[in-house]
Design a protein that fits this description.
- The chain is α+β, with helices and mostly antiparallel strands.
- 35% of the residues lie in helices and 20% in strands.
- A hairpin with a 6-residue loop joins strand 3 and strand 4.
- Helix 8 packs across helix 9 and helix 9 crosses helix 11.
- The longest helix has 30 residues.
- The N and C termini lie far apart (46 Å).
Length: 469
């Protein structure tokens, strides 16, 4: 009966979606909308992700680039003007009449030869400069910028650049404090982490060769299935089981509290108080040595390390919470392949969440890494990530907006953190047009849950950031 029930549900959804899309497509053709493109639901939902009463800020991805010498506004205009080749960077977003969805509309002139000049003039008018007294105040200044929203969604592209100038950099005797920051801020609706990092390769260059920054995007999405590792033709039973598992996640039991997250997750809301905690960098070759010794992946090592850190942190601050069978799950975004040769198609939100258990209750490092290795093995052996993507793109669009938002909140509130790996360049990079290499960069993304980001590799270093109340 289970496969039959699932088949009926799937058939009803497919038919309903087809009829809705056909009706909408016919309506848009009649209106003659030229050079407009509807956002996918994965992108749309990022514009209004959670119920309004949860006060979650818009999902702005913040790329923090540390530089010894801050480029001028005009240099940054030239640097980021090259993003004109990506249609989403020269578009605004608008909600269709009747609330039937969101679409991208060209920003400024529709002729490609005029867009570059238009974008450069826009950047000259909107790039802000913030003066910071010294390096000690820089992190607070960055966090203050990160906490703010973008402006004029309908009049401007959904990204901006901020110069944070360290006024004491030139005279500070400590060479580790002689830096300023270029802050690139872009709305998640324009693309996922893979898209954004890849597209920014046009604005950064290899510090040694002067060539555009290169990332092998394909190797970060193994097997052509977003890293799911699932067989080409999973059984109907495994598909049905995965569908029920995905549908049940938002109604599953809450995770056990730790010192890192609130105890009352049912009433979880965004506090408005977020700080970025930057962990000491770790050598990638050391992480790979651990991976090889344990017979697992780099991601397994990082998740096990995170679980150990949460365990020690909780044991130090709230030891009464600790027990052997702690339930602590992570939401991990998994990217799916996309045609990277076409800039219009490369900028996508083509990803799904995977739910992964983090063994916080395990007392030993070897036991933690073995537990993570087994969890990821089971995850890769099932079609659940692909099913999750199908649910996100085919089922959720059929729900009323309030119910889709509640479902997203219920899913998040059942988990303890969002954990993601972002590919970084293997070689030192510089801002395009500037010879001096960056001192480093981080990716900061405030979220409803604590957000853990691992940036790798960067000159053989793994950088870990935690965004926490």
């Amino acid at each position: 009966m289970l496969p039959i029930t699932v088949a009926i549900i799937v058939g009803a959804i497919v038919i309903t979606r087809h009829l809705r899309n056909k009706s909408q497509s016919d309506a848009e053709d009649k209106k003659g909308r030229k050079n407009r493109r509807r956002l996918s639901f994965n992108s749309e939902v990022l514009l209004k992700s959670f119920p309004p009463d949860k006060s979650v800020p818009p999902p702005i991805v913040n790329i923090v680039a540390f530089v010894k010498k801050i480029p001028s506004v005009e240099e940054l205009v030239s640097t980021f003007g090259v993003l004109q080749k990506f249609p989403r960077f020269v578009s605004t977003v608008h909600e269709n009449s009747g609330g039937s969805g969101w679409e991208l509309r060209p920003f400024g002139p529709e002729q490609e030869q005029d867009q570059r000049k238009w974008l450069e003039n826009h950047l000259r008018a909107t790039i802000r400069t913030v003066h910071v007294p010294n390096a000690a105040a820089m992190r607070a200044a960055v966090d203050a910028e990160v906490a703010s929203d973008l402006e004029n969604y309908k009049q401007c592209p959904l990204w901006t650049v901020v110069r944070l100038v360290n006024d004491n950099a030139a005279v500070d005797t400590d060479c580790n404090k002689q830096y300023s920051v270029i802050l690139f801020r872009v709305h998640h609706a324009l693309g996922d982490g893979i898209s954004l990092v890849e597209s920014l390769g046009a604005a950064f260059q290899n510090a040694a060769t002067g060539l555009p920054m290169q990332l092998d995007i394909a190797k970060h999405m193994s097997g052509g299935k977003g890293g799911s590792g699932v067989a080409d033709r999973p059984s109907l039973f495994s598909l049905a089981s995965s569908l029920l598992s995905v549908l049940g996640q938002a109604a599953s039991a809450f995770d056990d509290p730790t010192a890192l997250d609130p105890s009352d997750k049912a009433s979880l809301s965004y506090s408005g108080r977020r700080r970025t905690i930057v962990m000491p960098t770790v050598r990638l070759d050391f992480v790979k040595a651990l991976k090889n010794a344990a017979g697992c992946t780099v991601n397994d090592v990082m998740v096990a390390a995170y679980a150990g850190a949460v365990r020690r942190y909780t044991h130090a601050l709230r030891p009464s919470l600790m027990h052997e069978h702690m339930r602590h799950r992570l939401l991990m975004p998994v990217a799916f392949p996309r045609p990277v040769e076409d800039p219009a198609q490369a900028m996508r939100n083509k990803w799904a969440f995977a739910s992964l258990s983090a063994p916080v209750g395990e007392s030993g490092a070897l036991a933690r890494i073995a537990a993570v290795r087994e969890s990821t093995r089971l995850l890769k052996a099932s079609p659940i990530v692909g099913v999750q993507f199908w649910v996100q793109t085919s089922l959720l669009p059929l729900l009323p907006a309030w119910l889709a938002q509640k479902t997203a909140f219920d899913l998040f509130s059942r988990h303890s953190a969002v954990f993601s790996n972002v590919p970084g360049p293997a070689e030192p990079v510089a801002v395009a047009g500037c010879a001096e290499p960056l001192l480093g960069f981080q990716i900061v993304f405030p979220n409803l849950l604590p957000q853990v980001r691992c940036l790798l590799p960067r000159s053989n270093e793994v950088e870990i950031d935690v965004i926490q109340s």
